[in-house]
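Case study 2.
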Amino acid sequence: MPIRITGMNSGLDTESIITALTQTKQDRLDNAKNDQKKLTWKQDKWKELNKKVVSFYNGTLSNMRFSTAYTKKATTASKESAVSVVTGDTAMNTTQTLDITSLAKAAYLTGNQVKDSGGNSAKRSTSIDELGLSAGQQLKFSIGDNPDDVLAVDIKEGDTIESILGRLKSAESSETHTKLNFNFDDNNGRFYVSSQKEGAKAAFHLVDEGGENSAMKKLGFALNGADEKSSTNYIAGSSAQITLNGVDYTSESNVFEINGLTITAKEVASGITLSTKQDTSGIYDNIKNMLKEYNDLMKEISTAYGADKAKKYKMLTDDQKEAMSDKEVEEWENKIKTGLLSGDETLGNIRSGLKDIVNLGFDIKLKDGTTANFHLSDFGIGTGSYFSTKEEDREALHIDGDKDDTLTSGNTDKLSALISSDPSAVSDFFTQFSKSMYSKLSDMMKGTEYRTAFTIYEDKLMASQYSSYNTKISDAQKALEAAQDKLYKKFSLMESALAKTNSASGSLSSFFGGGG
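Prediction:
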């Protein structure tokens, strides 16, 4: 903006006069900026709410449409210290007998003490010269039952135990690219080796081709015994074995996957009873979790819809903000933000649509073969009393007998009773309920000319409105500057005329004064 110097001859405060004369255009510019800012706030509120709706839609609500959400099963073991069991959906409701005859082990070697040429216990800093080793010698370990799958490390010039250890840790076997765990303990002067996995297939075996002066022997990689079975410092890698209902199973790890059960053996034991049955608490928890997410969503929708419109809180001008503290400005603007979706038609439609699903009844098949029309109320699920709940909580669904709900914890627990007596009927109802609500939200989030897919509000329209404000702001800014420029030119001409008049008066006064 150009620097304007005015009022020097007239003595007028032309800045204030021009500001007052162009105030209408300034207001038009400020209003456009403020309306755009409010639109941005509104977009932010919609984005936050939309994120929660989509999360509910794609997550819990989507899962609860399928019967797998209600076929939860659990398995108990008579000796939990010996075994743990994860129960899959395909597991059979039955009682089984389990014997754990052996656990899987990882191969492990405690190396012999390494000594230097002086008979002293070696350290990581000990060099190959001090150990009587030479470059070109090898350390070799075979993996599993394949003698050709070898992990080999060469001894190099200038090596120390530290550098050899580093290469051992990073080395891989030739065919399966298996790594082993290596360590060297300075305090005891020994190498330690273990397989990274349990079982015979992952076990390592020592390969010594150089006799007593080999690198393997010199560095303590040797068996204390005639072979691995008789050795006192080598633990052979072994598989786990169990017998389930008289049938033997073997696993390279301690985990067995059998007929829908994931069985983890923890200790050798026999005569263990495994009992698999319907997990009523799991079904209850899934339903309770879905209703909680619904309640959280409806509370946010109801709070936003019923908020005070805050009509008395107008957007602040820059001058007003300067006269207030940051906290006061924040509190003022939050009042406006809170009421941006108050009474919003789109929000109201979402709220009504979800409530309609909650009030629906569904035909379900009972265990006696008959069909009945059930509502949520038949499961002891409903909203609280109008007078005993806050306005924003009046849409929340409560489960009778829910120990976590102070409003209904003392009521009879119909839901748990029905899950125990007729889980298929419960599954039938809530799959239909979830499908209906899922379908309703899907319809509400369909893409249109004004809305992208999976969006509950007209985001395209609002983006277009935002762009329109950019045009309005630009036009208003140009109109304001043009009006200001026009007035400044007029005042400038006036100042010039006054300057000439003053100059002429000065000359005339001088003329007459000289004649005296």
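The chain has three domains: 24-67+282-444, 73-104+239-278, 108-235.
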